[in-house]
Amino acid sequence: MSVALQSGSVAGEAAPTAGVASRAADFPILSRRVRGKRLVYLDNAATTQKPESVIDAEARYYRESNANIHRGVHWLSQHSTDLYEESRERVRALLNAQRSDEIVFTRGTTEAVNLVANSWARSNLKPGDEILVTTMEHHSNIVPWQLACAQTGAVLRVAPIGDGGALDLDAFDAMLGARTRLVAVAHVSNALGTVNPVARLVQRAHAVGAMVLVDGAQAVAHTAVDVQSIGCDFYAFSGHKVYGPTGVGALYGRYDLLQAMPPWQGGGDMIRTVAFEASTWADAPQRFEAGTPNIAGVVALGAAIDYLREVGIERIAAHEHALLAYGTRALESIPGLRLIGTAPGKAGILSFTIDGIHPHDLGTILDTEGVAIRAGHHCTMPLMKRFGIPGTARASLALYNDESDVDALAAAIRRAQDLFDGR
Ligand code: 7TS
Predict the structure, then answer these.
(1) Among residues 18, 55, 156, 379, which one is catalytic?
(2) Dihedral sign, CA of 113, 188, 209, 97?
(3) Residue 149 a catalytic site member
(4) 145-164 pLDDT per residue, tens
(5) Which atom of ligand 1 is nearest to the CA of 215?
(6) Beta-carbon neighbour count of residue 146 at 10 Å?
(7) What are the tens digits of pLDDT across the range 31-54?
(8) Atom 22 of ligand 1, nearest CA residue
(9) Quick one: DSSP state of residue 390?
(10) Alpha-carbon span 79 to 71, nearest angstrom
(11) What distance in angstroms lies between residue 244's CA and the mean position of ligand 1's atoms?
(12) Which residues contact 295 (CB under 8 A, 6 or more apart)?
């Protein structure tokens, strides 16, 4: 993958994003071939590839540092605990949380949302209370709330979106009221790329006394996140979408809230005392980290955060925005292609349908060309219903993509169209 230079740069002056895509060299998998072709990896919203430094960190942990944490008196256990807790501090810094004990390690975004649904929602909601989500939510920010509603008698409400895929802010405001106890909203939509104005939504929600959980799964690798300036009560993300390993992620929660919440899973490490009569709980965040966690994953997530900061999140964002503009122009020039999700300021996601070709067929044909995209409902079935379609084809960008990847995508789509025309 060549270095993508941005148009508009002054001669002799490096464009702010120059060199970002050249970091593709840091990702071993990107040099492999797939089906005899160069791998063009455009499924980054599903999971990102991992740089050598992250792969190394996980392997090095097992080679040099492996021991269980928080309970050992021996040196290795203390060392392992230090590495684990250093990653908590890295996540704190990444999200600009006030304190590291506002960071709970989880298996990922899904588990983080389930934690809040099982702990906060089950202990705070009563019949008639409302949880407000939006039409564009991922299933993992819908189903846990449906379960919590079934358990508490609370009601799930849904703020609509416009045809371009932007949240209808007036409708959102109108749906907030004295019954609204929680707003759960994506920072960035995985199927549309829409970036929600989360700070504004938080302001309005707080004005009626509602808590706000932001699903940051698609945001953290693509934009700087500051939970203090957003003002949210909870923020969730997954390690594997930020160049880190699978099976690890984090929940940010305001400390006073976490400290007032009951545990949702019991076991070792989350207790203060255990007796058969009654047990007492550790403080947050340990209260929510029952059992041996994914220690190696947490350590490698720390390495992924180091990597993000080294490349520079602002540079990554600028690079992806420029590439999105390039990709939008390339796809718009293809006859019969309809972009789904055209909200202003959207993130690096190109979701589309093609007249006469089912998204799954398109995905399969593109795969034969080495172009990896995703096809289907993207775990947003209600959103697909809103657009009256079964699914889309989706190309999603990361820091290592460049114009040659987008060109390969466009060329492969045109070849698929030729194939279908010639049936
Ligand atoms: N929220 C959003 C907005 C997501 O995009 C995803 C995963 C999740 C939550 C769940 O994250 P997990 O790491 O806990 O699974 N999105 C996708 C996707 O778009 N394609 O595959 C997974």
Answers:
(1) 379
(2) positive
(3) no
(4) 999 999 999 999 999 999 99
(5) 1
(6) 15
(7) 999 999 999 999 999 999 999 999
(8) 46
(9) S
(10) 12
(11) 14
(12) 61, 66, 68, 69, 80, 83, 84
